[in-house]
Write a structure and sequence with these properties.
Helix content is about 10%, strand content about 40%. By secondary structure, it is mainly β. The strands form 2 sheets. The chain has a 7-stranded mixed β-sheet. Strands 8-7-10-11 form a 4-stranded antiparallel β-sheet, with no helix packed on it. A hairpin with a 2-residue loop joins strand 10 and strand 11 (about 175-180). It is globular, with a radius of gyration of 15 Å.
Length: about 180
Amino acid sequence: MKVLVYGRTPDAPLSRNQRVDLMPDSAIIKDGKPFFVPPFSERWNYRVGIVARICRLGKNIGRKFAPRYVDGVGICLLTEPVDAMEHAAAHNALLQAYEGAVILGDISRSDFGVAKVDEIELTLGDEIERIYDIVADASRYCTMKIGDLIVSSSIAGGTLEIGQELTGTIDDTPALTVRVR
């Protein structure tokens, strides 16, 4: 399993020049487990993302078939070691492989209106169409496997601090809870 993270905001068009990060499944925290702040950075931020889960094995997926490969959408948090990224840019891949780089919320929905994490709001709207575009495009380069995750877009959330608890909802239904330790 892998996580593809597209460096775009929900309102930005999909572009060939878009930054895409590949994260290992060992970077994922799910099921409400706490995020233990790694010691290699003093300052931590988070982004709120829209995530889709792949449900079928596929390569070179045609755009019109892409909806068949997504069985859930939801929200996630992407944590960022701010000062470590400023001082060790050459180690960018290592700075995205730590446990908790991706904190998953509920991704069992087929659609949703508004997702909120604290005061941050995301609307799915046309983003589901971008997800299908991404599935088709990404499958040209790598095989999509069952359980792969695609973070199609994200927006800045805020600062992470020890003792903080973040909660998220999708259409007013609880979808994410994480404690920062």
